[in-house]
Amino acid sequence: MKAEVNIESGRNAAIALLRDWLFRRIDEAARTWFEEQVSLLRSDSGDRALYTAFGLMPRRLGKKSLALSADDAGAAAHCLEGWKPGDWSLVDAGRILLLARLPGSNPDFARRFCALCRTADVAEAISLYRGLPLYPEPAALEPQVGEGLRTNMRSVFEAIAHHNPYPKRYFDTHRWNHMVLKALFIGSGLAPIEGLDERVNDELARILLDFAHERWAADRPVPHELWRCVGGFARGDALEDLARVVCSGTPLERRAAALALSASPDPAAAALLERMPEIAQAIDSGRLTWAELE
Amino acid sequence: MRLGDDDTMKFIDAHAHMISRTTDDYEAMAASGVVAVIEPAFWLGQPRTNVGSYLDYLSTLVGFERFRASQFGIRHYCTVGLNSKEANNEELAEAVMDLIPRFALKEGVVAIGEIGYDEQTPLEDKYFRLQLDLARELDLPVMIHTPHRDKKRGTTRSMDVCIEHGLEPGKVIIDHNNEETVREVLDRGFWAAFSIYPCTKMGNARMVEILRHYGADRIIVDSACDWGISEPLAVAKTAKLALQSGVPEEHVRLACYRNALEAYGQSGQMSEEDWLNPPPIDQRTLYEGNSILRGGRPPVVEARRSARSADDLVIE
Ligand SMILES: [Zn+2]
C-alpha cells in the first residue's frame, strides 16, 4: 500500500514537472489555448473535444523537441524511477499532459485511451505510448499496450519498449520476453529497455538462443546485444554457442560473448574466457561492461 | 531532363490509392522522382458494410500507410471524407460522418475528399453538402471526385454546390477532368486535376495536348492509381512525354509538382520543407531506417531491375 502511495505522489510530481517544462517552452497564446483545453475536458466527457485537442496539438505547440537539460532528466528520474522523457517533443508533452490531467478518478480512462490508440496517426501513437508512466489506471491499459507492441512501425514499438518504465512494471514474463525478442528481430536496441537486466529469465534465454540459431542458419548476423540476456543462464549447449562467437565473431561480438561468459553460472565458462585473456582482464577490472558496447 | 537522377524534376502524385499498391510501386515511384503522394479516402472496390471497417481504413491512411511510404523516402499525405458511392448507404454514411471530424485535423490531412457525385442521388447530394460545410468550418481544401457517367453535368453541379456552400474556388480541386470539363473548371477559378488512368479517364498523350492548349495554371496531373489496372508512374511518364513534346519545363513543373503543393498546402499540413528538410521530430517518426532522406537530400533509390522476372532466381 505504501509503495502505491509513493507511485501516486511520484506520478503527480512528474505531471507537475512536465507542465512546467512545457509551459516554459511555449508562448502565452499556446499556454492559454492549452489551459482552455484542460478545463473544457473537465466539463465535457464526450470524445470530440479530446480528439480535436489531440489533433490540433502540433498546430498550436509547434514541431520542436522538448530539449531537456541534464538537470531536467535527473528530476524526471527522481519523480519516477526509469522515466526518461529525454527525446520527447513539445507535442508529446502536450498530449500526455492533457491525458494525465483528465478529471479526477476516471474509471473511463482505459476506454478513452484505447479509442485514441485505435485512430492514432503515427506521431499520436508515439505520444500515447510514451506517456504510459503518467496515466491513471496503468494496469488496465496493459492489453492495449500489448496491441501496440504488435505494430510494424518501429518508432511506435520503441515508444513502448525504450526509455519507458511501464513494461518492466506491468508486463508478465511472456509479454516481456516477446518484447525483447521483437526488439532484436526488428533491429532495435536492447540497452534502452528499462529493467532489461533485472527481468532476464531462463525462458527468454532459451528463446534468444533459438533465435541465434535461426539467424546462423539463414547466414545472417546475430545482434551482439542478444548475449546480454543469455549470459546468466548459459549452461551446457549454450556455452557451445558462445564458443562459436568467441572463435569466429567480430571484435564487438567477441566482447559481448565474453561479457556473457563472465555472467554464466557454468564453471566451464571460465575456460572459454581464458581464450581471450585481454578481454577477460578488462571485464575483471570493470573497464568492459555492457554500457561500453551500446 | 533525366528522371530519377540528382537535379532532376521532383514530382507530387496528388491522387494515389497507395494501400492497394505494392512496395515495388513505391520503389519505382521514388526512383521516378516522386517525393510526396496524396492518398484520398475512397471506396475499396467493394462496399464496406459497417463503420468499423471505415474507421480502420482511415486509421491506416494516417498510420501504417504513412510509415510504409516513408520507408521509400516518400512523404505520404491523405484526405478524409465519405465517398459518393458509400454515401448511398445511409446507415453507414451517418456513422462515417461522425468519424470524419475525428480524422480531419490530424497531421498531414490536406483536404476533405474525395467527395462529390457518383450517380447524383439525393443521398450523395446530402452528404456532399454536409462535408462541404465541414471543410469550410475547418478551413480545409476540398478534393472533388467527378462522376464517370454524366460527367459534364456532374462537374458543373459539383462546382455550383461548392459556391452555394460558400467555398472559395481556389480551395477546391476538381479531379478526373477531361477535354469536355476543363474549360469551365478553369474559367470558374477552380483547380483542374487530371487523373492519367488507362482506358477510363485520361491518357497522357491527351494530357500533353491539354497542357499545350491551356498552359499549366491551376492544372494538376495525378495517377489516381488504385486497385484497378492503373499506372503509379503516370506523373513521371506524363512529365517526360510533355517535355519530349516541347511543353516548357516550367509548365511541366507546375502541373506535376508545384500546383499540387500550392493547392493542398493551403491546409497548412504540407510544405516543401517536409521532404527537403524535415524537422528532427518528423525524421525520427517518419523516416526511421531511411537514412537516405536525412540531411535534406532528395531520396536516391537504387536503380530498379528493369522488369520483374522469375528469372531473378535468388531471394535473400
Ligand atoms: Zn480516387
Automatic annotation (TrEMBL), chain B:
Pfam families in the record: TatD_DNase
InterPro entries: Metal_Hydrolase (IPR032466), TatD-like (IPR001130), UCP005295 (IPR012022)
Highest taxon in the source lineage: Bacteria
SUPFAM superfamilies assigned to the protein according to its UniProt record, in alphabetical order: Metallo-dependent hydrolases
Gene Ontology molecular functions: hydrolase activity, acting on ester bonds; metal ion binding
Keyword set, alphabetical order: Hydrolase, Metal-binding
PANTHER family in the record: HYDROLASE TATD
Similarity annotation: Belongs to the metallo-dependent hydrolases superfamily.
Protein name: TatD DNase-like metal-dependent hydrolase
Organism in which the protein naturally occurs: Methylocaldum marinum
Classification lineage: Bacteria, Pseudomonadati, Pseudomonadota, Gammaproteobacteria, Methylococcales
